Amino acid sequence: MLVYFLATALIIRNNPKRLWIPATLLLLLSTALYSSAYWAGGARTVFSNLYMSLTAAIDLFLFKMNSTYGRFTDLFYLKPGGADDPLVLNRLVLLVGLYLCSIWTTSIMVMHFFARRLVSRISLAWAWFRKKGNGIHLFVGINPKSMALAKSLAKGEKVVFVDLPSPELLPDKLSLTQIFKGVRSGSDQSVRMKEVRQDAVVLKARKPLDQCTEEDLFKDLGLGLLKRWAQNPQTVIYLISGWYPSNVDALQKLYKYPAQIYCHAKREGLALRLELIESQHVHIIDSSFLATKALKGREELYPINFMNVAKGPDDQPLGYVEGSFDALVCGFGEAGQGMLSFLYEFGAFPDKDKQPNQFHCTVVDNRMEYKEGEFRLNHPGLELDRVSFVKDSVGSESFWERLGKMIRDLNYVFINIGTDAENLKYTFDILEFAFRNRENMDKILIVVKLDHPAAHQDLIGFFNSNYGGKNVIRSIGDIDRTWTWNNISGADFRHDAQTFYAAYAQATDSPVTWEEREKQIMAKPVSDLAKKLELQRKMGQDFINHFHTRVKAHLCPERLWKDPSIAANIPLGMVNDQHFTGNDPEAAAVLDYLAVGEHLRWKASHEINGYRLGPKKQEDLKTHTDIVPYEALSEQVKHYDWIVVKTSLELLGK
Fold first, then answer.
1. Which pTM was predicted?
2. If we measure between CA atoms, which residue out of 210, 209, 227 comes closest to residue 218?
3. Over the stretch 261-290, which tens digit does the pLDDT of each residue have?
């Protein structure tokens, strides 16, 4: 029996569907045992013998050794020999053994299949009845990100979680509790999730997402009723497991449903194409994009704060920067790539000669041989003299040697190499290293990625106070702030982009509304892919320009944006080949630098988003004619940069 118990335990943990094999074997053995007893008792008719034997064998699985046909156990005491007959004793031992094995089999089948599935089906039916099929937020998988997102939803929103079982086949140790609970019983986050969102309904899935192979995903999960919700345009489905390929695989099976689908994946390859095909209801959640967006919303993290802005005798900014900007990115995962994108774009400024400032970012990762090639492939226009990719481990001897050569001039450090504890360890190490090896801590910032920064504020405060007293350490990546509905859905993105575009449109000679611009782009005689990419690019530029107004504020005297006549003297179209018609040479000089800086930012933005110089504008090929130095642009094209500057000044003055 012990062997049988262990064998069934392994089956339930490896492949529960195969439990029918030992169950069938027990049924056959029990039927054969009862048949022999009936035969000895005189039941020689084959049909009646088989019928009663099979009924009695089934009784064993129902926790009974009796039947309405009589006490079958009495048959084992029939002569010859009675209770002392070895044959009778052997039959009794076999009967008890089969009985215990049947009880065990029935128990684990009920616990593993029927009980959990029954609870899920009752919950699903109750959720369907209670929510009446209206808008549902359906989360496939429970993890910290999905919980934070659910927490951000307003009270009264209808939240349903599909608790995916563990994909692991066998744990290190096998316990009786685990056998009855089942390895596929669900994630260890489900209890905490109920604390975060008490009104949520939790459904148990039959198998992990990456093991769902059927075309009907919900049927494969064992939750077929969910298909009705997927057919409702008001339903929002979130695919937020940590494994991108399983999310994209599920998206392939779901994107044809009218429900709104948010899929956690990189905005590239198949995921990007599915989003472009079904842009009305398929949305990619790119972590590097979220990280970049979060950075652009925090002015205190802008590179301009750690650069030397040129100033005149009156201590007023002149519109350009002096010296270099040097950055170090430790860890080139999603957040690291987002940080590089942010620094590359928001660190682009003109120098005194209206040339690009000295900028360099060193990226360190111990798996760089795998990450650099893919990044370069997707960013063919990247100026590699401004970025260095280094394969190294943070904390190694060679790392500290490299840092020693950089530390005196380093302006910006980003750290994301592992857990919060690992990130903090190296953050504090680098801070102490900088404190010992720099003349001052005025122009350096260390940004650390922390999922839960609130738990470490006291420690960060201690180091900030005692090593320079400059609040050098700042954190980003708070799950509860990053993974919110407004951030994921793009509601704040769209609002910010529309705010800038509305002002920009009024500053052009032929203003069109946000909606009219979309219609014009979609009416162009080009491919659907090119239309959607152009619309996506222009909306992204509106969003960036909204935040870059604060950068421009650092580069120009306040009077330029507090005096409305300055912006008013930038005409909608050039007048006598002039971009500025005011009688203020000092303002004109600063504005010229701002226009150059705007083009450098625009150029860097396109390069970091995968565009490169081409003979003509082709969105599907990601080529653009204007990815050139500012002096190579026509005066007409230059004036677009002046219009952006004009719009920025007007927004700053409000």
1. 0.76
2. 227
3. 999 988 777 777 778 777 788 888 887 778
